[in-house]
Amino acid sequence: MSGSLQVTQKLQQQQQQQQHHFESSCYLSTKSSVKQQSFSTYKTTSRRQKTTVKTEKSKEVLKLSPLPKRAKRTYLAMDTDKEVIGYVIPVFRANHEVVRGLMEAQEEEVTEEGINYVAMRNLFVREAREAVDVRVEKKTRTTHIRESAERVELSKTMEEWTEFRKKMNPDSLTHPPEFIIKPRGQTVWEGKTVKLHCTVAGWPKPRIAWYKNNVLIDAKAHPEKYTVESSFNMHSLEIKNCDFIDTAQYHASALNVKGEISSVATVVVKRFQEGEEAGPLDPKPHGFCAEHGVTFQTTIIDKFEVAFGSEGETMSLGCTVIIYPTVKKYQPEVVWSRNSVPLKPSKWVHTHWSGERATLTLVHLNKEDEGMYTLRVNTKSGFDTYSAYVFVRDSDVEVEGVPVAPLDVRCHDANKDYVVVTWKQPAVEGSSSILGYYIDRCEVGTHHWAQCNDAPVKYARFPVTGLVEGRSYVFRVRALNKEGVSRPSRVSEAVVAMDPSDRARLRAGPSAPWTGMIKFTEEDPTVGIVPGEPSDVVVTEATKSYVVLAWKPPIQRGHEGVMYYIEKCMSGTDTWQRVNTGMPVKSPRFAMFDLEEGNSYSFRVRCCNSAGVSEPSVTTGETTVGDKLDLPSVPGNPVPTRNTDTSVVVFWAASKDVKHLVGYYIEYSVVGTEEWIPCNNKPVKQTRFVCHGLTTGSNCVFRVKAVNAAGYSQSSSNSDAVVVQAAISVPGKATGVTLLEAVKDYMMLAWTEPASNGGADIRGYFVDYRTVKGDVVGKWHELNLKALTTTSYKAENLKENVFYQFQVRAMNMAGVSKASQPTSALECKEWTITVAGPPVGLRVLEVRDTSAVVLWEPPAFNGRTPVNGYYMDVKKASAGEEGWKAAHEKVNKMKYMKVTGLKSGTSYVFRVRAQNLAGVGKPSAVLGPILAQTSPDTKEIYVDVDDDGVISMIFECSEMKEGSEFVWSKNYQTITDTSRLTIVTERGRSRAIFNNPSVEDLGIFSCVVTNTDGFSSSYTLTEESLKRLLDISHEHKFPVIPFKSEMGMELLEKGRVRFWTQVEKCTSACQVDYVFNDVLITQGKKYTMNFDKSTGIIEMFMDSLEVSDEGTFTFNLVDGKAKGTTSLVLIGDEFRELQKKSEFERAEWVRKQGPHFVEYLGFTVTKECNVLLKCKIGNVRPETEITWSKDSIEIAEDDEDAKKIEKKDSDLTFNIGKISKADAGTYEVILRDDRGKDKSIFSLMDAGYQAVMNELFRVIANSSTDIKVISTEHGIILYSEVTYYNEEQRVGWLHKDAKIAASERVKSGVTGEQLWLKINEPTEKDKGKYSMDIFDGKDGVKRAFDLTGKAWEEAFEEFQRLKMAAIAERNRARVIGGLPDVVAIQEGKSLNLTGNVWGEPTPEVSWTKNDKELVSNERYQLKFEHGKFASITIAAVTTTDSGKYALLVKNKYGKEAGEFTVSVYNPEEEENKEKK
Known about the structure:
Radius of gyration: 61 Å
Number of strands: 102
Number of helices: 12
Strand content: 35-45%
Structural class: mainly beta
Largest sheet: 6 strands, antiparallel
C-alpha cells in the first residue's frame, strides 16, 4: 500500500515537473507580462480540488474537479500599466496520444519560430497535460519490485530518448540571449562618426534594441543621425556627425522568449578647442569631402544674441552662414533645436533657409518656448553650431496680483473615458500663494471650453474622466489665488479617448522595437457569460483631492467587452458603497473625488456586461486620503558669480530626497528693494543657470525654489550680493612698441596700453628681449622682474652695436596677457638727435559729443635742451595723412589739452609733438580712433552745498565694476595732499569736500573711474563761482524757515477765530511755540492748536474774542538749525472791529438754529424790467408761518398783492412788476415757529427806491440795441430800441463827443420803446460820430454810430431822394375837388361843372369824354381860370352827352385825372316806361 502510494506520488512529481517544463517555456524575463500571466494561470489550476470516485471494477480513481465555467482561463498580454493590450490566438484541446505525437514530430528544416507559434505550442501542451488522468492502484510487493526494475530500464531509455529529442526538438534548443562580443566604449572628436558593434547568441534569434541613456533610439525616424544594422548575429549602431550632446551611455538590449540581457558602452565626444596647436596625428573636427573634392569651412556670423520676448509676441532668430568654398547645387543641412531637442516646423515654429541666412520664427510666444536655442549647420566636412538663450516673459496680467498662466500642459495614460493631465507651475504666483488650478477641456473642432473640476486642485496632475470614446480633446490649465484666476495656459496636444491597444494598432509610422510581449487571442464563444472578477486592484495615485485606482481586466470576459463598478468602504466599517452608481466605467482606471481628507478607505472593483455583474475583486489595503507626494526640500544656498555686464551665473545645491522633480525657478532682487523678479519662466533641472537681462552695475541677490507636482518648495536663503558686471579676464596685447632713444649701453622703449584691460586695471608690464644675428634669433629673456607701472622702459646693460628685439606683456589681477608683436631688430648705438623725442602715454578722458581731453607724458628723451611746450594735431580717422590739422596755434605749456569743435558721431585720432630750443620733435604714437560721442550713462561733476554749508563736488558712475576706483585730480594731476580736499566714496558715488574753500582752490578738478570705459568728468572752479558757492554756504549754515504766507486771521462759524500760517517746507522734527504778548500759551479750553507737517499749515483756534485778547499773536518755529517767526497784531479799532464781527457771527449762528433767512430780503430786476423782491429762507418746516406786510400792514390772502407772492423751494418772491412811485413803501417778511422767529425788512423808499430805479435803469440801458439810421423826407433819424422805457431815465445825445443842444433842426425824444435823434435838413456839418448816453444808475451806457463815409452817403442820398419825392408829391398836378362822381341832368338843360386844380408849376388842363379829348367849341365850352379853376359848360344837353368824363391835369411832377359820369334823361320817356 505504501509502495503504491510512493509510486503514485513519484508519478505525480514527474507530471508536475513535465508540466513545469512546458510552462517554463513561456517564461520571458522578470519584466515580461507573459510570465506573470502564465504564473497566474498556474495558480488557478492549483486550486482545483481532489475527489475520489469508484469505477465499475470497484477501483478508486483520483480525479480533479472540473473547472468552473465562469473561471475559464484566458491568456492575455499586459503592459507595464496593467492594461490588456493583446488579443488571443486559437487554442485547441487534444488527448495525450495526439500531444505525444506532436512532441515527437521532427521538422525537416529548422526555421525561426514566430511569437504566435511559441505561445500556441506551450499553451496547448499545458492543457493536454492537465487532461491526463492519473490512476492509483494497490499492488503487491513482488509486482512493485518488478515494476521498479522496469522503471529503471525505462528511465535509461527515457534519458536516451531525451538526449535524442534535445538534438531533434527545437524546443529543447532554446536558450536566453548571450553577448559573445560586447559593445566597447569609445572617445571621438566632434564631427566624427562612431560605430558600436556586438555579437549576440540565443535561440530563438534575439531581437536587438539600442538605447541612449535608457531612451529607445528610433533609427528609422532619424536616419541622418543613426544607422542600425544586423547580420548573422552581428549587430552595430552607427552615430554620425557626433556632437557634444551625443556623450552618453548606450545600451544594447537583446531579447527573446527565454529572457533579456543588455550591455552598456560609454561614448565620449570631445570638443575641438580653437587656438591649441594640434599634432600631426590629432584628429580635426572638419575633414576632407571626397565627394566634392574640397574641405568645407563653415562660418556663422550676424549671430542672434540672448533674446527676450513676451507671451503673444512673435520672435525671429537668425544667423548668416558662410560655406566656403561654394559648390553648385550643394546646400548644408540646417537644424534648429531647443534644449538639445530638434525642432520640427509647426504652427508655432517656422524655419527658413535662404541659402545664406538661417531663420527661426517663433509665432505667438509662450513660456514653453523658453530655452537654449541652437543652430547646427551640417556639411560633408563636419558641422558648426551656435547657441543662445531665449527668455519668454509673462504677458501683463489683467488683474493686479493674480498668478501668471501655468505651462507645459501634457496628456498621459489616455483611455476610453479617462486621461491624466499634467502641467508645470508658473514662476510667479502673484501677490499671494497659488490655491489651486482649474482644468478646462475642449473637444477638437469646437470652441466650447468646459471646466473639468469644480474645486481647484493643488497637485499639478489631475485625472479627467467622463470623456466620450473616440473623440479628440485638448486641455488647458488656469491658476487661482486670492486675487483671482490667471490667463489660461497654451493648449495641450490633442488626445483621442480610446483603448490603448486600439491606439497602438492605429499608430502610424514604424513599429517600435520588440519588447518580448506575447499577444494571444481566444475564439471560444463566450457571449452571455458573466465576467470574472478583476485582479491586482491597486491605488496608483492618492492626494487630498482625489484617489486613482487601477486594475487588470478579468481573464474571463467574452468578446462584448466589460465595464466596471467601483466600491469603497470606510475604515472601521463593513459597509460597501458603490461610487459610480450612474454609469459604469470602460477603462481599467478610475479617479474618485469627494473623499474626506484624513480618512482611510478600502476599494474593490466589479465587472459587468450584458450577462450580469461579477464577484468583487480582492480589496485593496487601507488608503489614507492625503498628499503622498511631499513638497520638495529647500535647495542649497545659491552662489552667484559675475559673467557679463548684463548676466550672472548662479550655482546651487540640488534639493535632497525630492521625488518627481520638475525643476527650479531662480529669482533675483536688487539690494534695497523688496521686489523679486523671476530669472526664468520655465523650470530648469540643472543646478547652474545664467541669469540674463540684468541691469549693469546693479547689486543683486538671488534665491532658488524647487517645484514638483505637489507644489513649490520654500525659497532658499538669499545669496550674497553680487554686482552685475563683466568677469575679469587677462588684458589684451600691448601695441606700438617703439624705440624712443638709444645710447651705447641702453635703449629707451615705449608702447601703447592694451585696448582691453580685461575688466580690471592694468597693474604693470613686463618687457622681454632677445638678440638677433642675421636670420638667427635667440631665446626670450625677461628684462624686469618687477612689473612696470608706466608705458615706457629704459633697457640697460645692453651691448653696443648688437641688434635686439623686444616684446611687452600687460598684467592685471587676472594674470599676464599674451606678448605683443615683437619689434623689428633694433641696433643699440648712440643717437645724435638734438630735438625732443615724442611724448608718450597718450590717453583720452571726458569724451563728449563735441570735445575730448587728451593727456600725455613728457618724452623720455628731451634732446639737448629741456622741453618748453607741446603741439597737438588732430584729424578724422577716415582721412589720409594730409588730413592732420593743428588743434591750437600757440604753444601749450601743460601736459593736457581739451580739444573742442568735434563733430558728434565722428571718429578722430590725435598726436602730440614736444618742443625745445632746438625745435619741434617727432610726433607721438597716434591715439585713437576716438569716437566723439557722449556715453548714455555719462554724468558730469556737480557742486553741492549741504545743510551744514559744506561745499563739495560730486561725481556718480553707474558702471562701477569690481576694483573700480574714483581718482580725483586738480589740473589733471592726481591729488595727494588732503589738506585742501577730503575724498569720501560710497559705492558708485564719490564726493570731494572742500576743507576751507578759498582762492587757493581755483582750478580744474577732474575725476576718473578706473576699470571702466573711460568714465570721467571735470569741473572748473572760477573766482566768480567760488563767491557764489560761499554765499550759498552761509545761507545753509544759518538757515531760516521760509513761509509761504505770513500769519493770517479769519472768522469761522459761531464767531470762532482762526490764526494760521503755512511754511514752504519743514521736517518731522519741526516744533512750534504759540505766544501771546510774549507769554507762551498752550492748548486748553480757550486755545486749540494744530500743525500739519505734511502741508506745513499751522493753526490756532479761539472760540471767541474777549477784551483781554487784544495784543500780538506769534508763532515761533524751530526745525533743527533753522528758525522762523511770524506775528499778527490785533489792537485798537482793528481788534474791536474783529471782536464785533465775531460776536455777530456768534449771533448769526444762534439765529440759524431756527427758521431764518439765508439771504435777506432784497430785489432784482428781470430782463423784462419787472421788479422782484426776493429772499432765501432755510431751516423751515411745514408749520413755519411766513407773513408778508407793506408799511406794517399785513398782506392778507384775499388782497390783490397776495397774487404777487410766490414760494418755490427755499426762495420767496414778491413781483411788483413795472415799478412806479405808488409801489414805494417798507416791505417786511416774518418767519415764525416754535423754534424761533426771524424777519427781514426792505425799504423801498428814498435810497432803497433809488437803488431799485438805478438797477432798472441799468437793465434798460443794457437792453438798448446798437444805433441804427433811417432817412425821411425831412432829414435823418438815429434811433435805438430798448425793452422798456421809464420816463425818469435820462438819455443824452452827443455829436463828436459834444452834447447836442435841442433846436428846430435837431431834436431828440422817445416814442414808445424807441429812443431817437432827428436831424432835419442835414448838411455836411452833420457828419461825424454820434453817441447816445443812457443813464444806468451809475456812469451810463453808451451806444455810438459813425455817420461818415458810406453810412453818411447812403443816408443822405436816401434823404435827398425822399425829399424830392415829397416835393414832387406836393407840387404834382392834381384835381383837388369840385367834381362830382355822377351827374344826372334832364335833357335840354345846361351843364356847368368846375374842378379845382392844383399844381406848381400851373398844370396843363384837358377834358375827355369816353377817353376822347374834348375841344372847346360851341357845344363844349372849356375854361381854365386863375390857374386853379377848370370848368366845362354844355348847353342844352341831350342823351348823346351821357358818358364818362375826365378832367386831366398835368405838369412836370406828374398828372392826375378827375373822373365823373354824366347821365342825361328824358322825363317823357321815363314816364312811358313806368306806364308800361
